[in-house]
Design brief:
single chain; alpha/beta; eight-stranded parallel β-sheet; 11 helices; elongated
């Protein structure tokens, strides 16, 4: 049986519960946009705000990023949310439409439409929209996900140009597969393939670079640069932190210490007894878990910030709680703020410990975590 006992006389947390929240610094978006624009040259910047703006909230992010040249989303519902904020910006559906009804709705919202498969051209040919459709033709330059094969692109373009209701200024687009690795030559191969195709098709307006391309691959920066993770202040490049690149994190995820237990040598902590105390020590309980979006795969030793000091996570992450080793913060008290990632603890560091990527952590913050905008 464990001999843990709660700390006596510690302050009681304020009413309202665990203190878990995502603090969104809106000024970080403006700073990060300036950094990215400096790398894009004459290219226009399209802000990717899919997945609820990577967990930051579509509407406030779109309002803040009014200075971008356009927005990109994955779904029609996301596009509707962008349109509720701005009517003047181009909005691109990155995966295009999935049926005739969606095509009609996209036209009514004045969206730009990605076309990546022949069946989508079938939909466009059969449509009778009230205004011309602006189309981005997606080709596969090496990712083998979405996009026409290079050999099929001329035929696809010919079909689109034959449609009277398709704007003649088709944009050629592709997506970088390995741009996060600055030592991988595949990115240059993709750049070369897109350049050759754009010349053969006489399409001068192209889009290839993402955040990694913008920051690390100058030749990938074409007419449009689609930036996502960099806007949110996380690094898109392997081995580089956001601060290395001049980016500031927009989200700080934090909670509070809701208990501090005095444990003895050998006491097991958490489900399954996955971690045991190497000595008599204080173990803090933090009011956040995988039900809030903190990864259950975060391993023992994953850092959290308690009062400006890094402390290792111990035991398995629970749905609503996690435990931390407080041996290096003897002054810690119940109610102290704990930062899970943010301005003092890069989300990339947490992602590495959880064997995932910062995109997943940011997008995974759940609806029960209130967002506080500053």
């Amino acid at each position: 049986m464990s001999s843990t006992s709660p700390v006596v006389g510690a302050p009681v947390p304020a009413p309202g519960g665990r203190g878990t929240r995502a603090v969104i610094d809106l000024s970080a978006f403006e700073d990060n946009l300036a950094v990215l624009r400096a790398h894009c040259g004459q290219g226009r910047v399209m802000a990717v705000v899919k997945a609820n703006a990577y967990g930051h909230g579509i509407e406030p992010v779109v309002r803040t990023l009014a200075g971008v040249d356009g927005f990109a989303v994955a779904t029609l519902g996301e596009a509707e949310r962008v349109r509720s904020v701005t009517k003047r910006h181009p909005v691109l559906l990155l995966e295009g439409v999935l049926g005739a009804e969606e095509l009609e709705a996209a036209a009514a919202l004045d969206l730009w439409i990605t076309v990546h498969s022949p069946w989508q051209i079938d939909l466009i040919e059969a449509a009778r929209p009230r205004q011309p459709l602006r189309v981005w033709l997606k080709v596969d330059t090496g990712m083998n996900r979405l996009g026409f094969r290079m050999s099929d692109a001329p035929g696809a373009l010919a079909r689109l140009r034959a449609c009277s209701h398709v704007d003649g200024d088709v944009v050629l687009m592709s997506h970088l597969a390995n741009a996060d690795d600055l030592d991988d030559p595949k990115t240059l191969h993709q750049v070369s393939r897109l350049e050759d195709l754009s010349e053969s098709l006489d399409l001068s307006v192209c889009s290839l670079a993402n955040s990694a391309g913008a920051l690390g691959w100058p030749t990938s920066r074409r007419s449009w640069v689609r930036v996502g993770i960099g806007l949110y202040g996380a690094s898109p490049l392997l081995g580089r932190t956001a601060s290395d690149l001049g980016l500031r994190p927009a989200m700080t995820l934090e909670s509070t210490l809701i208990a501090i237990n005095r444990c003895e040598l050998g006491d097991a902590v958490g489900y399954g007894g996955a971690w045991r105390c190497p000595e008599a020590m204080a173990v803090g309980v933090v009011g956040i878990g995988y039900g809030d979006g903190y990864s259950r795969h975060a391993s023992n030793g994953t850092p959290v910030d308690v009062g400006g000091r890094l402390c290792p996570l111990v035991g398995r992450v629970s749905m609503d709680m996690l435990c931390v080793d407080l041996r290096h913060v003897p002054e810690a008290r119940i109610g102290d703020v704990v930062q899970l990632w943010g301005d003092r603890l890069p989300v990339e560091t947490v992602a590495l410990a959880a064997e995932t990527i910062c995109y997943e952590l940011l997008c995974g913050v759940t609806a029960r975590v209130p967002a506080i905008y500053r």
